[in-house]
User: Which sequence fits this backbone?
C-alpha cells in the first residue's frame, strides 16, 4: 500500500498512496482526478484547508512585490505578524522570533531558556516529540532519537512520566533551565495533559527558577480550543513555539517569549536568514485573518465534539485530545485502519501508540466531511 519515493530521494518517509496535484479545503485531487478527504491536514499544516484563496492571493501579491529580503532590513509584514501573534497569545507572552520550522523554533526556545537561566538541563515528558535538530532530538522521547542525540554529543533531557506531577516535582531541581511540554502531545497519539498537570508545571518552574516552554507546533494555531493551547488550558508559559499551521503551508516557525526571558538579547544573539521572510509572513497574516473571520477555532471545537460523539457511536471507547487534534483508541493496529481508509480515499494519521488513529484535519472541516470520515470508519471497523 505504501509506495517508495524516487530513488534520488532519501528513503526516510513512509509514503501514503496518493500523488496530489491540487488541493481545495479538506480535499486533495490526485493526478487521476480522484478526490481524497484529508483528515491528516498535511500533518496539521492546512489550518484553513488546502490552498485557501485568501492565502494564495496574499502569497501571490507579496511574491510579485518582493519575494525576499533577509532580516538585515525591517519589513512591515514581519512587524504586523509579530504584533498579531502577540495580541493572540496570553500576556505577557509578546516578544517574537521568526524562523522556518518547528524544530528550529524549539531549538531557539531551548537556547533562550538556557541563556536566561544560565543552566543546562532540560526536562521533557515521555511521549514528547520536539524535532530533529540535535537539541530537540535530545528531549524527544524514543530510543532512535536519543541515540542520535548521543552520537551528536548533546546531553539528553531528563524524561518524566506523562502527566505525572510527582515525577515532575522530583525532576526539576536548580540545574534545570526549562521544562518542555506539548499541552496536547501530537505524535504520542493526541494525548492531552490534564489542566492540573500544566498548572503544577507552572508552579514547579516558578518555585525552582526554570522556564516553562510549551511546544505548540502541532497543537497550536486554533487547533485545540483557543488560538494557543496555553489559553485553552489557562496556563501561561515563559516560551511558546508555533510552526506547522501558522502559514497554512509556507515554512515558518515562531518563538513567542515573555519580556523577562529576552531582556538581555542583543543583535547577533539569534538569527535565521529566511526567518520572517515577507512571503511566509503574508501567508500567515492571511491565514490568521481567515481563522478569525470564519470562527474556525469555534468550528474546530464543534467538529471535534461531533467526531468524538460519532466515533463513540461506532464503538470507539476512548477518544483523547482536544478540538481537532484527536486520538481514536482502537482495538486493533491503527495502521491497518489507516491503510483500509486509503481504499476509501481518506487520509488519517497514526501515532507512536500503535492503537491510536490520529485525526488532525483542517480547522474548516465541515459536519458533512465528518460524516464522510465516520462512514469510512464504520465500513473499516465493522
Ligand atoms: C510537537 C512538535 N514539535 C516539533 C515538531 C517539529 O516540527 P518541524 O518538522 O517543522 O521541524 C513537530 C513535527 O511534527 C511536532 O509535532
Assistant:
Amino acid at each position: 500500500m505504501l509506495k517508495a519515493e524516487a530513488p534520488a530521494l532519501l528513503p526516510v518517509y513512509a509514503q501514503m498512496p496518493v500523488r496530489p496535484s491540487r488541493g481545495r479545503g479538506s480535499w486533495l485531487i490526485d493526478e487521476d482526478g480522484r478526490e481524497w478527504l484529508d483528515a491528516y491536514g498535511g500533518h496539521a499544516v492546512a489550518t484553513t484547508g488546502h490552498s485557501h484563496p485568501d492565502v494564495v492571493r496574499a502569497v501571490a501579491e507579496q511574491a510579485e512585490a518582493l519575494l525576499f529580503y533577509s532580516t538585515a532590513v525591517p519589513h512591515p509584514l514581519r512587524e504586523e505578524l509579530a504584533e498579531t501573534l502577540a495580541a493572540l497569545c496570553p500576556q505577557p507572552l509578546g516578544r517574537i522570533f521568526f524562523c522556518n520550522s518547528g524544530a528550529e523554533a524549539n531549538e531557539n526556545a531551548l537556547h533562550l531558556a538556557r541563556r536566561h537561566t544560565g543552566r543546562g538541563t532540560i526536562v521533557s515528558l515521555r511521549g514528547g516529540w520536539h524535532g530533529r535538530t540535535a537539541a530537540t532530538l535530545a528531549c524527544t522521547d524514543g530510543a532512535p532519537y536519543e541515540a542520535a542525540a548521543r552520537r551528536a554529543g548533546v546531553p539528553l533531557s531528563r524524561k518524566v512520566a506523562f502527566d505525572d506531577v510527582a515525577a515532575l516535582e522530583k525532576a526539576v531541581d536548580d540545574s534545570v533551565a526549562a521544562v518542555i511540554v506539548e499541552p496536547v502531545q501530537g505524535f504520542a497519539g493526541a494525548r492531552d495533559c490534564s489542566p492540573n498537570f500544566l498548572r503544577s508545571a507552572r508552579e514547579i518552574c516558578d518555585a525552582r527558577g526554570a522556564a516553562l516552554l510549551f511546544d505548540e507546533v502541532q497543537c497550536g494555531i486554533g487547533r485545540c480550543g483557543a488560538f494557543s493551547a496555553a489559553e485553552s488550558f489557562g496556563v501561561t508559559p515563559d516560551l511558546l513555539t508555533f510552526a506547522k499551521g501558522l502559514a497554512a503551508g509556507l515554512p515558518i516557525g515562531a518563538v513567542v517569549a515573555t519580556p523577562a526571558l529576552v531582556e538581555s538579547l542583543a543583535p547577533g544573539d539569534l538569527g535565521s536568514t529566511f526567518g520572517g521572510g515577507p512571503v511566509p509572513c503574508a501567508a500567515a497574516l492571511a491565514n490568521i485573518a481567515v481563522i478569525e473571520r470564519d470562527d474556525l477555532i469555534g468550528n474546530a471545537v464543534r467538529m471535534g465534539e461531533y467526531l468524538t460523539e460519532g466515533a463513540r457511536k461506532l464503538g470507539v471507547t476512548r477518544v483523547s485530545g482536544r478540538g481537532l487534534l484527536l486520538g481514536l483508541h482502537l482495538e486493533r493496529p491503527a495502521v491497518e485502519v489507516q491503510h483500509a481508509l486509503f481504499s476509501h480515499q481518506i487520509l488519517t494519521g497514526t501515532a507512536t501508540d500503535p492503537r491510536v488513529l490520529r485525526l488532525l484535519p483542517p480547522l474548516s472541516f465541515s459536519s458533512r466531511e465528518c460524516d464522510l470520515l465516520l462512514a469510512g470508519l464504520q465500513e473499516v471497523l465493522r
Remarks:
- The radius of gyration is 20 Å.
- The chain has a mean pLDDT of 97.
- The chain has two domains: 20-52+295-381, 54-293.
